[in-house]
Write a structure and sequence with these properties.
It is globular and about 80 Å long. The protein is about 30% helix and about 25% strand. The protein is built from twelve helices and 19 strands. The strands form five sheets. Strands 1-2-6-3-7-18 form a six-stranded mixed sheet, sandwiched between helices. By secondary structure, it is an alpha+beta fold.
């Protein structure tokens, strides 16, 4: 079991990593190298030989391997990203890059997404070095750049250019799973991610006849684009129940003592109450307009107008997504993928999932572990190119009233010290015999 020093170090490392500003605005100006060097130094202090890799100067990734005791076992990838989304200091109760520890809570951007998990990995690995522990299977530890944008400088680069470092890896774990979800009725649910919707970020372009704003214009690009955006925003996508979502609905229905009626999923979700939040975003494809760009003067009708849409596809749902976008955009608006990544599914009856469940239950016996599908995506998408099946497993025991999912990319992102301690204990138990 992780020692006291590991519990102290996970707090120290989380705070230190938050203080290293690795803001990724998506324009290529992020520099993860200081955080990568920090992680590499601590891995080296545990007797490992970390490799630092860059596609673009300053966009640094770290990879190291821990040799397991069973050479016949497949290797496990344990990965976390080093970059974070932007934060406006004026909106926060504490400075987002202070890493302040106040009243038993670590504050700052990355506290849950996902420098906390990076710190847990480092703390566990270092505790093993002190104890002389080796895991059953080889572990490949990876800290990546650029997850909060395209991942081209991070996991995409590693998968495409450095596949040899991940030789033997068949499964992986990373963010967004095994956290406490309080249902408001006294139950603690721990969802483990066994799937992700695919990413379909879209660029819509409408073209028309430029002209004076005072004249009649039946070929107005802004009007054409606005109509298409309105249709996309109002569209009701049909239900699509994947195996992971079916497993989630089945286990949640059993927990709440209701029938698993997949013929009326919307009604079933109503019966699940607050717990429906764990699955409601993953029973359909989705497309949300997010950005508009048109014109340069109020009395000039532009010849072109552009919009961006955040689309997400369930496994097996991309053709439906494409066909629907063709219909919704119509003949006057073109669309293309600005960024695209695959949807993922992982088995919930695997030995690895069972070990994750057992590790959570060992330290949260009052909890109820269920599978779920992420509405968004992670670096597991890029690593899937190497045949690696990804799970979301970054354990945290959270108090009631702290909305974990709302903290992702939100204001006043923070994580309790006790949650970090729980995460280290659970991760340590799982990784020893994973």
């Amino acid at each position: 079991m992780a020692d006291q020093r590991a519990l102290d170090e996970v707090v120290e490392f989380t705070s230190d990593l938050i203080r290293i500003d690795t803001t990724n605005r998506g324009g290529g100006d992020c520099r993860e190298r200081p955080a990568a060097e920090y992680a590499a130094e601590r891995l080296a202090g545990a007797g490992l030989e970390p490799t630092l890799l860059e596609r673009t100067k300053g966009r640094t990734n770290v990879v190291a391997r821990i040799e397991g005791t069973d050479p016949s076992a497949d290797a496990l990838l344990v990965h976390g990203h080093l970059d974070v989304v932007p934060a406006e200091a004026a909106d926060w109760s504490v400075h987002p890059f202070s890493g302040e520890v106040r009243d038993g809570v670590v504050w700052g951007r990355g506290a849950v997404d996902m420098k906390n998990m990076d710190a847990m990995i480092l703390a566990v690995v270092r505790s093993w070095a002190r104890e002389g522990v080796r895991p059953r299977r080889d572990l490949v530890i990876a800290f990546t750049a650029d997850e909060e944008a395209s991942a081209e400088d991070g996991s995409g680069f590693l998968a495409d250019q450095h596949a040899v470092l991940f030789e033997g890896c068949t499964e992986g774990i990373s963010e967004s799973g095994a956290f406490t979800f309080h249902d408001g009725a006294g139950r603690e649910i721990y969802p483990i991610a066994a799937g992700e919707r695919g990413t379909g970020w879209l660029k819509l372009t409408a073209r028309g006849r430029a002209g004076h704003g005072s004249k009649v214009n039946g070929e107005n690009a802004v009007t054409r684009l606005a109509a298409a955006v309105a249709r996309i925003g109002a569209h009701e996508w049909p239900l699509r129940i994947t195996p992971t979502v079916r497993a989630a609905l089945t286990e949640l229905a059993a927990l709440y003592g209701v029938d698993t009626d997949l013929k009326d999923v919307d009604r079933l979700l109503e019966k699940l109450g607050p717990a429906a939040k764990l699955v409601e975003a993953t029973v359909r494809n989705s497309a949300n307009p997010t950005m508009l760009n048109a014109g340069y003067k109020i009395n000039v009708i532009p010849g072109e107008a552009v919009a961006y849409v955040d689309g997400r596809c369930l496994p097996g749902g991309e053709q439906e997504f494409r066909d629907t976008l063709d219909l919704l955009t119509g003949p006057d608006v073109e669309w293309e993928f600005d960024h695209r990544e695959v949807a993922l599914q992982a088995p919930v009856d695997s030995p690895t999932y069972a070990r994750m469940r057992a590790a959570v239950e060992a330290f949260a016996p009052e909890g109820h572990v269920v599978p779920y599908c992420m509405s968004g995506g992670t670096d597991a998408k890029q690593f899937s190119r190497l045949g690696i099946t990804g799970y979301g497993f970054a354990p945290l025991k959270l108090p009631e009233g702290l909305d974990y999912q709302a903290l992702f990319h939100g204001v006043d992102e923070r994580v309790p010290v006790e949650a970090l301690h729980f995460g280290v204990r659970v991760l340590d138990r799982f990784l020893r015999d994973a």
